[in-house]
Amino acid sequence: MLKYPCLVLDHDDTVVQSEKTLGFPFFKAFLAKIRPDVTITYEEYVRGCHEMVFTDMCRQKWSFTDGELQEEYQTWKEYIRTHVPAAFSGIEAVIRRQKEEGGLLCVVSLSGEENILRDYRTHFGIEPDVVYGWDLPEHQRKPYPYPLQDIMERFCLKPQELLVVDDMKLAWKMAKPLQVPIGFAAWGKREFPDLTLEMKGLCDFSFDSTEELEKFLFD
Fold first, then answer.
1. 51 falls in which pLDDT band (50, 70, 90)?
2. pLDDT digits (tens, 9 = 90+) for 152-194
3. Calpha distance 130→116 (Å, rounded)
4. 63: alpha, beta or left, given left = phi > 0 and alpha = psi -120 to 50?
5. 3-state SS assignment for residue 184
6. b/e per residue, 188-217, with b = 16+ CB within 10 A?
7. pLDDT tens digits for 56-99?
8. Which stretches within the chain are classed as H helix?
9. Other C-beta atoms within 10 Å of 101: how many?
């Protein structure tokens, strides 16, 4: 019997390595295009995304208009179609065992469903049971509770039957009010020990590697 019948995975920097290699370089170039007098470092980008929703960060820090947010998203969609991030070592075993042992695999991410499904097909040859991504209305995306509420309603699950695994604080904000347990994907934040320390204090569990997560779930 599975410890958690439903595994809820984040995507970027939990399943695939994308923030440093794709997300930040793209956004830095886009920001330079529309705000040529502004610069941003990788650390500023990571910390901003850690504390707030990406759209809120863009609005508050650089006064993005709705049109600029839409332009950024459309440009990003074109970019990511031709750039496939690498998967973290060991995460495939977690995903496969969850499915093979009869569990549900859901994705709650701020990436688009199109590229999430593409990455799963490319790296693992399977698809999640359901994806809650950027394509949803803003009030239904992480950190709002809708994805977890819908999973529980759709599959008749109790909060303790889910485990959220994510590298970002937004997931804790989503899961905590619903009493859904959350595990910190510490392998995605190795360059930021203070953020790691914060997340280990907030989350119910913490996993330094994908192998630790696999052992926790199945052994």
1. confident
2. 999 999 999 999 999 999 999 999 999 999 999 999 999 999 9
3. 11
4. left
5. strand
6. bbeebeebbebbeeebeebbebbebbbebb
7. 999 999 999 999 999 999 999 999 999 999 999 999 999 999 99
8. 24-34, 42-51, 54-62, 66-81, 91-100, 113-124, 146-155, 169-175, 193-202, 210-218
9. 12
- Return d(Cα 28, Cα 212) in angstroms, integer: 34
Residues 6+ apart with CB under 8 A from 118: 81, 84
- β-bridge mates for residue 104, sequence order: 6
Rounded to a whole number, what is the distance in angstroms from the first to the last CA of the chain?
A: 11
Q: Specify burial of residue 105 (Cβ count, 10 A radius: 0-12, 13-18, 19+).
A: buried
Cα–Cα distance measured from residue 3 to residue 216, given in angstroms and rounded to the nearest whole number: 9
Conformation bin of residue 32: beta by default, left when phi > 0, alpha when psi is -120 to 50: alpha
Q: What token pair was written down for 33?
A: 């295009």
**Nearest to residue 133, comparing CAs of 123, 122, 153, 119?**
119
- pTM reported for the whole predicted model: 0.94
Cα torsion for 111, 181, 91, 121, to the nearest 10°? -40
Tokens of residue 192, six digits = 């930021």
Cβ neighbours for 203, distance < 8 A, ≥ 6 positions apart: 172, 182, 183, 184
Please, is 100 exposed, middle or buried when counting C-beta atoms within 10 Å of its C-beta (0-12, 13-18, 19+)? exposed
Token representation of residue 218: 């199945």
